[in-house]
Structures are given as structure tokens and as C-alpha cells.
Amino acid sequence: MEFKGFNLIKLLLLTQCLTVLCASEDFDFFYLVQQWPGSYCDTMKACCYPTSGKPVANFGIHGLWPNRKDGSYPSNCDPNSPFNPSEISDLTSNLQSEWPTLACPSNDGTGFWTHEWEKHGTCSESKLKQHDYFATALALKQKTNLLKALTSAGIKPDGESYTLSAIKEAIKKGVGFTPYIECNVDKSRNSQLYQVYLCVDASGLNLIECPVFPRGQCGSSIEFPTF
Ligand code: AMP
Ligand code: AMP
Q1: Which of 51, 58, 85, 89 has the highest local Cβ count within 10 Å?
Q2: Which domains does the chain have, with CATH numbers?
Q3: How confident is the model at residue 25 (pLDDT cuts 50, 70, 90)?
Q4: pTM, entire model
Q5: pLDDT > 90: what percent of the chain?
Q6: How much is the average pLDDT of 150-162?
Q7: What is the DSSP letter of 101?
């Protein structure tokens, strides 16, 4: 009897452990991805300002993405952990200004935050629960004033073109870490500054040099559009 009971407990513990393991995915670090709204909005695809109004002319958060050193990344890790706005109600006004949606039709941002939480956030749930995930991204953005780093080096959102090396150097000098720069193209097919990737350790607390950069290339001359 005693022996059987012990086995039952062991079995229960094992299934519990497996459930936890299945819901948690491995990752080594995060990309903190920030986006220039002018470059999201001046492409062939339309953008729409959020219902709270036109965002300020600053970089906005796109996401905090768990990644692996081999360049791969987990996604959509936990269907049992849907986005729950009531868990982050204290962060809503900060999210509206720092993590603004630009998707159409115009909306309050919940759709964008839901997508980011469900695709990426659920993959770092072992380290950051929903409230901490959003609070961590907001705190990291505050530590990295990209627009100030760029403008201090004379790189302004004025529709002019700058070199990739000047942009990278300005951010390295201002923020302390080497960024990855992602470009997209405007309606005239000019390469422009779209997103800036910085790396963060798996705790979400510290910026680090990137263990691996995403693939992709900008033109040598990169436009910095107005917004
Ligand atoms: P992800 O799936 O996290 O790699 O993000 C890509 C998706 O986010 C695409 O569907 C984009 O259209 C969308 N997206 C990117 N920037 C924004 C934004 N500022 N507002 C709303 N959706 C966005
Ligand atoms: P390449 O121009 O491909 O020879 O790259 C030279 C260095 O710049 C490598 O360390 C690349 O990882 C890095 N690099 C290339 N493109 C980018 C980019 N868009 N943003 C940041 N670093 C880049």
C-alpha cells in the first residue's frame, strides 16, 4: 500500500514537471526591438494612428523577443496564457505612449500587445510573467534613448540620408552597445531606418552585446524620415 502510494506521488510529480517543461521554451537572450514610426507609416502599406492620438515623434517599442544563440527563436509557446489587459492596467498609459500601435484600422493597441505577448512573451514566461514582461520592456526602453543618441550625433529625422556606420556608431556611443539596424523601403524604394535591435540578457535586466545578429542588410545610404 505504502509503496503504491509513493509511486502515485512520484507519477503526479513527474507529470507536473513535464507540464511545466512543455510550457517553458528555451532561450538565451532577448532582442529589444524599437521602431521608427515614420518608417512604418511612409511605405506602400497604410498606417493608422491609435485611438489615443498620433504618437510623439520618437522610437516606439515593437517587442521584446526571446532568442537563441544559434539565431533561432521560439514562438507562440503557451496557448494557455492569453493576453489579459486587467493584469497590466497600471501600465496602459505608458504602453500607449511607448508601445504604440500603428496598425489599421485605428484601435487602442490591445491587438498589437496581444500579438506580442502571445507570439513572444509566452516564450519567456519562465522568467517574466505577463506584467513583468511589459514592465521590463518599458524599463529597458527608458534606458536606451535612441533618438537622443542619434540627434546628439547630428542624425535627425529630417528626411536626409545617413550612413549605416554613422547610425551604428551614434547608438553605440549613446547607449553603450552595438545595435543591429533593420531597414525597409519607402514609396520611392529608398532604404530607410526602420527598426533598431539591442540585446538584453535572459533576466531582462541588463543590456548586453548581441550574441548573434539577425540577417539582412540596409543600403549604404539610409534615410531617416520625418514623422
Ligand atoms: P512579430 O510577429 O512580432 O515579428 O511582428 C510583426 C508583426 O507586427 C507584423 O504583423 C507587423 O505588421 C506588426 N507590427 C509591426 N509594427 C507594428 C506597430 N507599430 N503597430 C501594430 N502592428 C505592428
Ligand atoms: P557586412 O557589411 O555584411 O560585411 O557586415 C559587417 C558587420 O556589420 C558584421 O559584423 C555584420 O554583422 C554587421 N552588420 C551588417 N549589417 C548590419 C546592420 N544592418 N546592422 C547592424 N550590423 C550590421
Answers
A1: 58
A2: 26-144+177-216 (3.90.730.10)
A3: confident
A4: 0.87
A5: 87
A6: 98
A7: -
